[in-house]
Inverse folding.
């Protein structure tokens, strides 16, 4: 197993340096002030999350006909069953519980220039599944139910900036997918709006520069999933040279060339689209919604406190009771999906002709809308493969688990959406590999970061996990 | 009602001129020779299509549990039920039969330069639902079942050029949607490959220039739907000045500027994506597959010879027996969807600042994968709205039906996919409107043809009907 002391050292160094350089980059708030503010928010906003039996859920019930776990309003989301048929040689067919949420929500970040420097309005927000309570979320994080106010709660703050009639300038606006293993066809609208208004600052919000946010992305469980996906969508050209991007060493130069459209890519963009189109045509992914009761045929057990798989793998479905002081509703109960262990998301990178390339794979997950999306080189919960024959284990999983610390460029734990997942965390790694390491089969391709970024305006190209990695690795171009 | 004598006159004029100019454009086959060849193929390839009761279908049965009409192999396609919930003010919820075909097929055109001029390899192909037997189809038109040879038929000719190991140059390769009103989430791979090989010419195939194909697109029911969608995807830049494109009159100049990236567009591309993202987030489109038997609750009748709606609207499901001499299998039976009347697809265009703009709408159909796609200004079967209150009739439907001939730039009848639809035809119109005609509501937007074309490499932006129109209207830039 690798240890992550190298990357941790970088974080500590980053925190030391950032205190010195924060004022130099004209942030409205120093990092020291940020941490003080964040700690104060943590103390001020009390919350409590308790596991409860399903029978104690309020407003949620198992439908008597199907066994589906649904809300009485017919809104929010439901836990149903999905039967999947693929043409993969291993585990080609299965059924599983899945979160069904056909509504498209809004994840929006409001940005504003202070003395010419772009700042993001970030929110300290509790979600019941968060491992650590508060995390930094986007300015707005609302399901359609939320902002149509089905639950009768308070207004969603700052939502007016993301409405069509807003006077702001839209920097990005696209639908992005979420976890295909746990959600059926789920997408959210990711939007970034720049305003010139005087924006009143609520006590749970703060303005941070992109450079500051990139440093915070090196901290475990600080920037939530919704923030990461939106941050990944901010066009690199807009962020400019902010954050003391440096081109001194060959790795950083190769990284910056990869982000720009000046790098030399081994495949042109037409080739990438054709490769993905061919895979999407060849890959069979037949999804059929079934009742939650029907997934018991494939080893799932519907208990009174938990829905789980008899092999002890994959995930559980649990229920929680929540009390919180800074949410639209002060107390509620809800189901959550609880993965059995942390996931591993490792992106292998190497320099080709002076431009950094990332090895992405086209991956099909149970609930994906468009057959396959691009994701990290290794993307799995390793425990699910503990008893799987070597030829069917994910490519490079063992390589990643034994990579020397000196090759690890990024190593951080992030939480996944705490509104739907209970203590779901993934370890995000960027590992620079030997020049001779190559595509293991035709589902993998070496691409530049610019090529990945240019796919972001269109839906369902990059998984939320790859977008998380892309947001997090931007710090690699910063002199920390 | 408009009459189409102006456009018909243009076709006749085109046919006169093309005979004179075909040799000038270095086509390998003159238009006169093409028509002789096509007529000979029609005489040589006998076929017969007869309506039969469902009970006489061979290999197809109504599933005893669900009533779904399925093939014994579990492959090809099935007729099932779909329940749809939207937040539209009129007909917001309904259920209907729908074609379910989760496989992605291949629609491929092989191109080759003869004396420097790009030619497409087109096929004279019978489909059982064709109103007129033979139409010109792409080089390859194959479901995954076809080329995996589930039915044990002959090899699909020229398929090897579209495999990953082909030595050809891929000019376009993307997934494109098909009719959202009749198909659930259906897409096909649209691919164009250029070869330098000597390609042996099968008797049912011919080489045509793009200029020749554009002239044929002015003829009713000649170029089939699968050809039109692939032709729409051929990048305009690749087709070059071929076909005597002329810039003499202001309309043609505005058209050519609209196709190029030099035109001045009223909305930038970021604005278009943001507009569509906002609509996709706001529009509710909740799809739930139900059994075919369940659609009877909404007025559908399951007869022994036909499945139809008691209002006499929408479409029927019928069964046919087919005998054909030039298909992989010589005789078979199958179900088909038969629309109750021809559809109307009208694109309103106008010159804005010397660049032609098209008024597109973002439209949600029952079976769409990505909530909404861009389509023609008017896109409907007019009869479905005969008894609908004026405020809920499609915008500009009455305008189109009464437009003066002098404003009609294109008017042609094309068939929809004859392998799934029985005598399905749509009237495709391009109408140049008054300068003061504007977007009727925020679901409509003026865009340039270049902006539409630049969305084609990505899936599910343009309906198959709009792609048909775009392929057909390319002739507007030709001196005919």
């Amino acid at each position: 197993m690798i240890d992550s002391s190298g990357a941790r050292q970088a974080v500590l160094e980053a925190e030391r340096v950032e205190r010195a350089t924060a004022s130099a980059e004209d942030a409205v708030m120093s990092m020291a002030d940020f941490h003080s503010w964040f700690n104060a928010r943590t103390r001020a906003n009390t919350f409590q999350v308790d596991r409860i039996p399903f029978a104690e859920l309020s407003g949620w019930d198992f439908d008597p006909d199907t066994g589906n776990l649904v809300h009485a309003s017919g809104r929010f989301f439901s836990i149903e069953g999905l039967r999947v048929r693929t043409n993969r040689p291993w585990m080609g067919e299965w059924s599983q519980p899945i979160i069904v949420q056909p509504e498209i929500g809004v994840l929006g970040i409001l940005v504003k220039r202070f003395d010419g420097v772009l700042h993001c309005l970030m929110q300290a927000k509790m979600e019941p599944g968060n491992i650590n309570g508060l995390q930094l979320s986007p300015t707005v994080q609302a399901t359609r139910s939320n902002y149509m106010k089905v639950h009768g709660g308070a207004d969603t703050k700052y939502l007016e900036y993301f409405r069509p009639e807003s006077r702001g300038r839209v920097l990005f606006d696209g639908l992005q997918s979420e976890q295909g293993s746990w959600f059926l066809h789920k997408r959210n609208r990711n939007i970034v709006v720049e305003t010139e208004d005087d924006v009143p600052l609520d006590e749970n919000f703060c303005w941070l520069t992109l450079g500051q946010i990139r440093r915070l992305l090196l901290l475990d469980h600080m920037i939530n999933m919704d923030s990461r996906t939106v941050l990944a969508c901010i066009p690199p050209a807009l962020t400019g040279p902010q954050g003391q991007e440096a081109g001194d060493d060959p790795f950083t130069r190769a990284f910056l060339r990869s982000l720009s459209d000046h790098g030399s890519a081994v495949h042109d963009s037409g080739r990438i689209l054709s490769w993905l189109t061919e895979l999407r045509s060849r890959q069979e992914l037949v999804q059929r919604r079934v009742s939650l009761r029907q997934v018991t045929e494939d080893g799932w057990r519907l208990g009174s406190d938990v829905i789980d798989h008899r092999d002890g793998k994959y995930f559980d479905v649990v229920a929680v009771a929540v009390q919180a002081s800074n949410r639209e509703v002060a107390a509620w109960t809800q189901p959550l999906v609880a993965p059995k262990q942390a996931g591993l998301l490792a992106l292998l990178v190497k320099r080709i002709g002076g431009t950094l390339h990332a090895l992405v794979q086209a991956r099909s997950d149970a609930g994906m809308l468009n057959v396959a999306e691009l994701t990290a080189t290794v993307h799995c919960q390793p425990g699910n493969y503990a008893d799987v024959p070597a030829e069917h284990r994910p490519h490079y999983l063992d390589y990643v688990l034994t990579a020397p610390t000196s090759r690890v460029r990024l190593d951080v734990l992030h939480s996944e959406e705490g509104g739907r997942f209970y203590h779901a965390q993934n370890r995000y790694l960027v590992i620079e590999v030997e020049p001779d390491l190559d595509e293991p089969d035709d589902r993998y391709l070496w691409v530049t970061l610019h090529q990945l970024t240019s796919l972001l305006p269109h839906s369902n190209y990059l998984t939320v996990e790859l977008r998380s990695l892309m947001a997090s690795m931007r710090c690699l171009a910063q002199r920390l």
